[in-house]
# Entry
Amino acid sequence: MLYIFVFLVLLSLSYVYLKLADRFNIIDKPNHRSSHTQITIRGGGIIFYIALLIFFITSGFEYPYLFIGTTIIALVSFVDDLRPQPPALRLPVQFIAIALAIYQVSLDFPLISLILLLIVGVGFVNAFNFMDGINGITGMYSIVIVSFLLFFNIYEATFVNLDLLYYLLFSLIVFGFYNFRKKALFFSGDVGSISIAVVLFFLVYQFYFTLKAPVAILLVAVYGVDTVLTIIRRIKMKEKISEAHRHHLYQLFVDSKRFSHITTSLMYSVIQLLCCIIVYYSFQLGLWEQLLIVTLVLLSITFCYIFFVRYFLKMRVKAS
# Structure
C-alpha cells in the first residue's frame, strides 16, 4: 500500500509541476544545438529529487550525506534551468555533491584513489547531463539501470535500501509518461539529469564497494563510452570540449533522419541492458575480480561506436 501511495503522490506532483511550469513559463526554447523543435516545459526531472526526498523521510533519514549533496545540486541545477548560472558556481557544487555521495558509502581507499573517484564522479554527472538531449534517453536508460539494481538487490545480494530503488523507479516511470513521446510534454532539465546522475553514481559505487565488483563499471558503460569517445573526437577536431555540440552518437542517429528520438533511446537502453546482463552472469560465474570481461565489453562497444560514427559521418558528407 505504501508503494501505491508513493507512486500516486509522485504522479500527482508531476501534474502539479506541469501546470505550475506552464503558468510561470519554465520552458526550453530550441536552438541550433537542440534535437527538438518545439518549446517544451523544462525541469520535469525534479520528480527524481522528490522521490529521494520521500525516501529520506520515510526511511528514517537514511543516507543523509547523499540526500544533502543531492539537495544542494538539485537546487543549483533548478536555478540554472530558470536562469543559466556560471560554471564557477555549478562546478564546485558538483564536487561537493559527489564528495558527499562518496563519503556516504566509504572513504576506505588511498587518498589518490578518492581524488580520482571524485573527478570521475563529477565527470559522470556532466556526461549524464550532456547525454540528456533527446526524448526518452535519460528516462529509459535510468530505468534499465535502476530496474537491474532492484532485481539484483532482491534476488542476488542486498547492497542498498530497497525502497530507494523502488521510489526512483516510480519517479522514472512517471517521468516517462510525459517524456517518452514523439512530442514530449516536458524535459528533465538539469535538475533532473544531474540529480539522477548523483544518485546513480552513489548506487554504482555502493554496488562496487559492497560486492567488491570492478565489473560495476558496466552499469554505466554505454553513456561512458559514448562520452569519452566523443571527447576524443572533439579534441582531434580541435574543438573546445566545454562548448555545446552535436557530436554524440545519439545525436548523429537522430540527425541522420533514420532514427526517431524514441528509437534511438531504446537502442541505447537495450545495449545498456545487455551490459547489465553481463554483470549478472559475472556474479553467477564468480568473475567479480576479473577485469578481462569488462575490458572486452568496453572494447566491443568502442568498436561499434567507431563503426557507426564513421558510417553516419560518411552518409552526412554524401548528403551535403
Remarks:
- The two ends are 57 Å apart (CA to CA).
- The first strand starts at residue 27 and ends at 28.
